[in-house]
């Protein structure tokens, strides 16, 4: 098979020293680590390349819409004091025209330290599987309590987000980060089970929108519930803890959670026709 | 081992006969025949009529399949049938036929999930080992990936299936249902040039089509492009279809433009959610199954996406993509091999049967 | 003190060195503004009322936006220097941006920015010209100095951020970080 090569960086980042380092190729964006305007502070650079599979008009429309809507949501959340990365710079216009030009867009953001929750839960599940035999019931309980604590923090972070009038649109455990508190040591418990200390920071607002609708909020939670069910089977039974963290985080949570029941029912019912 | 597969969850009745050689060599398709109930233009297929179609053809098709496969009843090990999901009446007519054969011949029954049938057939034909599966048909729109003995649904439609959206727009335009409405939309779309603005609704790995259908139906109405008469004009025009080729943008859209725009929009959504799932599970293979999967534009778009991710797309042709009996035989035989049986008392069918309900014992 | 002119190589824009000087107690604001209005190319600078600048990051964000737009032929105003002043503004109104952020007759503290858009513009040439034309006290362009100059309420008003808590003198102040981040996103998003 042909070796995969990431697309070239858009201007002006083709002049950056050191060159931005590609971290992940997400579904529709490449994430790089680079420097902010202050070279001693790192930054995250999200590049949305043009998608050649799409019709060029649709492609430009979606790329532009998504990057500006993402930046607008972040800007709003920053003003509201929600834990999200700051917007440092943005380019939604591309350059060089439609023929042979660059039809992508980019967004430079504050760099957030720490692992994504997905990795934390995966490590934890793997660790539990490995050590199941040697743990007594109180140790298992203690481990599960730590995960419940993390899920509660996640729920609360999502509540604060919704309270600010934004829905994420793509909540998965890959879009929640765990930023270690300043000055925290790495070896929290020394057992090899991953740390769950720190602040939950929400990232990747590529599908976010501004909304105060219960329906949108409930769909946010439902999407996350399903994502956890499909990627972290062992943590799934503790999803209720996330719901509790969410419920306690703002006043409108109760009605959004009520709506979640409906969304779940609909989800099961839409099991379709052949 | 030899299995008969019987499928009739929608308007196709399919009978397939599959051989899994004892020496472990690759499975062989001995017969794969299908008969489709085609409704008149402007109409969908109704459960009652479809069931009647299946009842009147099933015996004929089973006989023909056995003949083509050059096997006798004695060679057959089990009878696999679609348990669901699907339309109630057509499912019932096939399950009754399966039960009858089981009692008549003294063969064991294996109830199969229709979606799992598509996935297993796709894997077999294409050789894709662990792909992200896009299952797109008249009744289903799901993005599926395998994990811990389940085909897990990562994303799906929040309302109607993509195939249903296309079929219903075909009805608006009075496009023929023969051989399939989606196929005729695809042909018309090839002449489309300008892209009209349609809603684009993706939420996470889920998507929604009802708003798009409403919007494009509205456009068809606004520009007077729906209905029987326009369909007839289309047929007359096909000879000189190139005349509209260099229309400037923002001109009045044609029927072809609408089909083109609808396809471009909904397929972009499908490719997007598939790519999302691939990124999520870290897979580089995509397998497209289901009737809409035979659309070449969808395959092309998916291919570009997969290439840009350093991966590849696997698709099957209409023999295996569109509902068929052999896929039921294949999935049924995999389950049968692990000891799975469906006792007569449980040989029911169900309109609702989620892909992730099936315990996939035959995979690690 | 010979010169307080700082030459910054902005991250990602190494080919466009940026020369920045900060002055207090400007004596000839009216003269400088006059030269600017007269279109004297010698005086093609971004003359920014420093009381409208919260921090170094705030100013460099506007410079970055303007220079990046300049490089991609997307200027909305006359030149890259007017664009820097315009880039500080959260809306698309150019005249308003000059009223709010540009030099006025009563400007006391002045931030001067010059971009090396051509090879003749060097640290030395800019330093010499500024020394001969700006009457004021050169000071260090850093957050410490700016914190003594910035008019937080005016800045918040210009960016419609009145509801945000006001920064205090503390170091690592969360309110200041939040205000600064809010300004940066407004600059990045202008016109979107």
Task: Report what the structure shows.
The complex is a heterotrimer of chains A (274), B (364) and C (192). Chain A is an alpha+beta fold and 274 residues long. Chain A is 41% helix and 15% strand. The two termini of chain A are 36 Å apart. The C terminus of chain A is likely disordered. Chain B is α/β, with parallel strands linked by helices and 364 residues long. Chain B folds into 2 domains: 159 residues, ATPase, nucleotide binding domain (Nucleotidyltransferase, domain 5), CATH 3.30.420; 193 residues, ATPase, nucleotide binding domain (Nucleotidyltransferase, domain 5, 2-Layer Sandwich). Helices cover 42% and strands 19% of the residues of chain B. Chain B is built from 11 helices and 12 strands. Chain B is globular, with a radius of gyration of 21 Å. The model of chain C has no long low-confidence stretch (mean pLDDT 94). In chain C, strands 1, 2, 3, 4 and 5 form a 5-stranded antiparallel beta sheet that branches. Chain C contains 8 helices and 5 strands. Chain C is globular and about 45 Å long. Chain C starts with 5 loop residues before the first strand and ends with a helix. Chains A and B meet through helix 1, helix 4 and helix 6 of A and strand 8, strand 9, helix 8 and helix 9 of B.
Report strand % of chain A.
Answer: 5-15%
- The CATH class assignment of the largest domain in chain A is Mainly Alpha
Mean pLDDT of chain C: 94
Q: What is the fourth-level CATH superfamily of the largest domain in chain A?
A: Transferase(Phosphotransferase) domain 1
Multimeric status of the protein: heterotrimer
Residue windows where pLDDT falls under 50 for at least 5 positions of chain A: 269-274
Rough outline of chain C:
globular
Largest interface: A-B, 39 and 56 residues
Strand content of chain C: 5-15%
- Count the DSSP helices of chain A: 6
Kindly provide the name of the CATH class of chain C: Alpha Beta
Q: What's the total number of strands of chain C?
A: 5
Radius of gyration of chain A: 20 Å
Mean pLDDT across all residues of chain A, rounded? 89
